[in-house]
């Protein structure tokens, strides 16, 4: 599901236009809501707790750090990012009559997602959608990395990510977004967004209101009561 704050943006997405801001946009974006669009911690390569790192500058050891030490890569700023909400089963390997309501909550849209906008497009055939994105990337000779975002606890995590991994790691206050992310590398530095045209997707997607999705969501078990 992709959420938009304007209906015309949803209509453009149905037409196959993937509007992708630079990673720098999200690092610098300021808004009233917390854990929404903006995230100054995007693309963290290193996240080190104060008591587990030793900083030395020009021979002088820095002590009494106020918080975790963060490192980021400047070149990540030029990547174009397209984000989409990906409902998934999480830790559920199977469901039954006893767990079906918990499973429904797992795949329901969190209220926080409505802060992103009231208009939504649901992609019904995810595999085909991803293949169309890949085809458009190949035709433009762009670089591509894609996958689910994984979330970490910034109060306890201490360590590093690879340069590619870091694009798909966010603090756990964003975990309600269940984000699947496409990272496009056009090879061109700058601040301009990318509009990647993958062709009309009206055959595999439908438009609706975010507020209507949970009310219309149904989960049914087979006749034997297990899945």
Could you write a compact summary of the structure shown?
This protein is α+β, with helices and mostly antiparallel strands. The protein has helices at 7-14, 23-28, 100-107, 126-140, 210-216; strands at residues 2-4, 17-22, 44-48, 55-57, 60-62, 69-72, 80-85, 119-123, 143-148, 150-152, 159-160, 169-171, 179-185, 194-197, 205-209.
List the helices and strands and how they pair.
Blueprint: E1 2-4, H1 7-14, E2 17-22, H2 23-28, E3 44-48, E4 55-57, E5 60-62, E6 69-72, E7 80-85, H3 100-107, E8 119-123, H4 126-140, E9 143-148, E10 150-152, E11 159-160, E12 169-171, E13 179-185, E14 194-197, E15 205-209, H5 210-216
Shape: globular
What is the rounded distance between the termini?
Answer: 24 Å
Number of strands: 15
Unreliable stretches: none
Mean pLDDT: 90
Structural class: alpha+beta
Proportion of helical residues: 10-25%
Q: Radius of gyration, Cα only, in angstroms?
A: 20 Å
Helical segment tally? 5
Q: H/E series, N to C?
A: EHEHEEEEEHEHEEEEEEEH
Strand order of the largest sheet: 9-13-7-2-14
Kindly list the characteristics that best describe this protein.
single chain; 227 residues; alpha+beta; three-stranded antiparallel beta sheet; globular
